[in-house]
Input
Amino acid sequence: MKQPVAVAVIGCGYLGSIHARLWTQCQRAVLVGVFDIVAERARKLAAELGVPAFGSLGEALDACEAVTVATTTSEHANVACAALEGGKHVLLEKPVAATLEEAERIEVAAARAGTVVHVGHVERYNPAFRAALRYVTRPLFIEAHRLSPFRKRGTDVSVIGDLMVHDLDLVLALTREPVVRIEAHGVGVISSSVDIANARLEFASGCIANLTASRLTPKPLRKLRLFQPMAYMSLDFSVPDLEVYRIDDGQHDGGGTIVAHAGGNAIWYEHPLIEPGNAIADEHRAFVASILDGAPAIVSLSDGIAALRLAAAIEQEVQKRMEQLQLRR
Output
């Protein structure tokens, strides 16, 4: 395929607008236009960026080689399948679909198309997470908090599909193991679905992940802590920032500062320098690299479906619990 890759953005809401603006800065791609079912929203964004506002999805697909799908989750399957059936490469915002059945439709269309599909679990590109990967060996306990103020966008799915799914993708990427047990609780407070939830996941190795997500919190918080033999890590995705504590096992590279001793071993503290970056821009570059260079996907369609499948299982556990407590809305 020739450079630059012609990209259209489908969906001009909050995330779609961010994608469109960043596509104008991608050196190996060109934004050829935008489309939204709310025509005025598309026209406004198009005028800002100096690109066409397409009159239909079909018109957008005819003009491009690749799309970012940033519609409401309920429309992901229809738009993604149309793009794939047209032979387009697809960058699909998370969650991949509203239901597993819809995700399977996308999976079938992708297999037939043979084109590139990436899923927008953007925290995989967060500089703090990428820096932490070099320290991860065998996670034993993971704790994550993802808290956000209430916003109307995203409420077409529960907080599990809207926010917790980010951390579900991260723990699946960190453990690379099946979940063998789920305990989950949640309640709906403002919207018609679950707005705050907690899930305790047990993996085949015995690793435990305890995840909390809320869209009812005044101050945003996006943190993850990971414990493993000889080390503890604390990640703040918002800053981004990473702190690492490691016990000197005789193979320490000498980085950091000794802060204590335990059992005759030194405990080293490291605060790696995290270069600020834009995770969505990095996501775009990875998507284009897969199209032009054949680079493997950092977040594949199968990864996105795995996170959705786990989210669906958690939803089921939450609903069971709500029925038991007679809190179902």
In short: The chain has a mean pLDDT of 93. The longest strand covers residues 179-187. The chain has two domains: 5-115, 124-278+311-323.
